[in-house]
Amino acid sequence: MKRVRRLGIVGVGLLGGSLGLVARRDGLADEVVGVGRTQRNLDVALERGCVDRAATSVDALAGADLVVLATPIGTLASSAAAIAPHLAEGAIVTDVGSSKASVVEECSVALNGRARFVGSHPIAGLETSGASAAHEDLFEGARCVVTPVAATDADALREVKALWVAMGMSVDEMSPVEHDRVLALTSHLPHVAAWALARAVAATRGGGVDPLRFSGPSLKDMTRIAGASVDMWRDILVSNADSILAQVDLFRTGIDDLASAIAKRDGPAIEGFLNEATELRQALVSDGGPAVAEGGVEIVSAAPPLLGAVELPGDKSIGHRSLILGALAHGTTKITGLSSGEDNASTLAVLGSLGVESCRQDDRVWIEGRGFEGLRAPSEPLDCGNSGTTIRMMCGVLAGRPFEATLDGDESLRKRPMARVTDPLEMLGARFGSSEGRPPLRVCGATLRPGVFELPVASAQVKTALLLAGLQATGETTVVEPGASRDHTERLLPIFGVEVRRPDGQTVSVRGPARLEAARIAIPGDPSAAAFWLVAGSIVPGSRLELRGVSVNPTRTGALDVLRAMGARITLTEREAVGEEPVADLVVESAPLRATEVSGETMLRAIDEFPALAVAAAVAEGATRFADGSELRLKESDRLAAMTQGLSRLGVRVEEASDGLIVHGGAGIGGGEVETYRDHRIAMAFAVAGLVARDPVRVRDAEIMAVSDPSFLVTLRRLRKGGA
């Protein structure tokens, strides 16, 4: 596209902000100017680099030669009329609205010949909004529709198409009317269905058992887009009402047909209905990424190689601790970089049930802390979801509170033993009730006393629970471990004003009662999430992946050390620390791997990354031995058994021991279906294995990946396109 002197963006939210990020990154304009309604959002846009200059008045657009209207549909025409007097002669104006017939007509009239209008609809977005949600990869690989009419200027059309191509999009032309008909079916109707489903579920609440306590991934997936911007979608439904109503009638016919088959108990008719839907779903995702199949997701061998940059979720471990300490501090704690995964969301929800107020925008969270004493008795059990970290750390928090609370979780969490954390806490004076030491756990708060605890097994979760309890006791509480577990709690506590004594790498002490003060916390990228991409980049021939802003805390770099010992080509460039956490950019390039041994202190530092490393071992030449990993049997699943079974099903020879595995690599990985036991790391590990398998690998319950990385499969699809 021609370089723009002044690019104007009216409405610097998700779409407008993302466009500005790319325009500034790639130098598409001499200046990017943003205009918006609220100074707060504009301040966020400036802080994030979406625009060079921002204002609430359209006067700021004086002399602009290209303007993108990214406001709600109902305000597009008035926005066009407002900016018209300020534009450069011959300026081009386009929009991002998802209905077009009325928009093209009204905006063309509003500009009154002062500028050339071209209707656009970039089909990209998230359920979040605002400049804080902007992302420079939002448009990458997506599709944009431009909607010229007879009066559209040919040069303006060419420049607008070039703009969206520069954003990384493929561009199609369509008449406004045809666009509205098609998008009513593919975009507007799904939102209508999501809202109707959410409303149906909401209508059943308050009449006994709350259905949300038993909701699973299906309900969350189906209602995800119901959280989209109310203002934006109200205007879309009004502006494209006729087309949407026609598609609602079509949808209603489908619902009626399926309901009729169910009422008749007509198995063959139901099967035919489901098969037809499954075929369409497979066609929908058969663009080189994972193809959804019955019972899970199907991964086929990667060709071409994986290329591109990976944006990692924020480190879960730091996220849990930051949320909890922020809730226990006095004042407003601001956290940036929080993972969108379900585990951190579980911690935030539990804190909310204890009376802690918070505000979340994308990866930013503001926690209104009122100290330990500000926590309130919950009215119902605290749902920790799938998060073992949440339930164990909250045991330490609740141990000293003057009320009773019950900690519970999903089916997987209810199988996990809790005695390793409740036993030492009871020595401090806390009281717990459970069935055979597993959730649900009833916590009876008590006056705590300090103590010295020598843990039989190094565990950052148990250590943190004891320290959180110790902060409520009078005197010094000390935890001694047989090895150095991850030390994020020790690094965070001083930021919140708590003195921590660490005479060596295995001993830590705090003194209570302690008062925590609010802090600002930035969370780096999760090294456990990075491990899957480091393995994928190593084993898929020709691959090169960049992982930016990864935590390289010494207690978390075990997987990095193991992969380097196996011959992986990984380069590390140190960056400025994020708070107290060391950070680096990593680049991995494919390389032949060789067997190694993983045990002792290295195994402890790589414990969460074991599933990914086991896949690397299956590809490496020789027999890789994993030992000293008995802790793996107490994770979300028995990970030693899960990896043994899954790799064996894929034709890899594995010998299972009580505390580890021997993986015989080099013979290749076959295809088949693998069970994940609803363990997010097992699911992601076998998705990576599928990238080099001879035949497709079907990963059951793949939606469980959202526990730690909701974007995993989306990122995988994008990286597979990188070499096309």
Protein described:
The chain is of the alpha/beta class. Helix 11 runs parallel beside helix 12 and helix 14 runs parallel beside helix 15 (460-470). Mean pLDDT is 91; it is low at 285-289. It contains 23 helices and 34 strands. Strand 14 and strand 15 (364-370) form a beta hairpin. The protein has four domains: 4-174, Rossmann fold (3-Layer(aba) Sandwich), CATH 3.40.50; 181-283, 6-phosphogluconate dehydrogenase C-terminal like domain (6-phosphogluconate dehydrogenase C-terminal fold, Orthogonal Bundle); 307-313 and 524-721, Enolpyruvate transferase domain (UDP-n-acetylglucosamine1-carboxyvinyl-transferase, Chain, Alpha-beta prism); 316-522, Alpha-beta prism (UDP-n-acetylglucosamine1-carboxyvinyl-transferase, Chain).
The number of distinct helices, counting runs of at least 4 residues, comes to 23
Indicate the low-confidence ranges by residue numbers.
285-289
Share of β-strand residues: 15-25%
Q: Total number of β-strand segments?
A: 34
Instruction: State the end-to-end CA separation.
Output: 22 Å
The top-level CATH class of the largest domain is: Alpha Beta
Described by the principal axes of the CA atoms, the overall outline is: globular
- Proportion of helical residues: 25-40%
CATH fourth-tier homologous superfamily of the largest domain: Enolpyruvate transferase domain
Q: Describe the main β-sheet briefly.
A: 6 strands, parallel
Class based on secondary structure composition and strand pairing: alpha/beta
Instruction: Based on the coordinates given, report the CATH architecture of the largest domain.
Output: Alpha-beta prism
Question: What is CATH's topology name of the largest domain?
Answer: UDP-n-acetylglucosamine1-carboxyvinyl-transferase, Chain
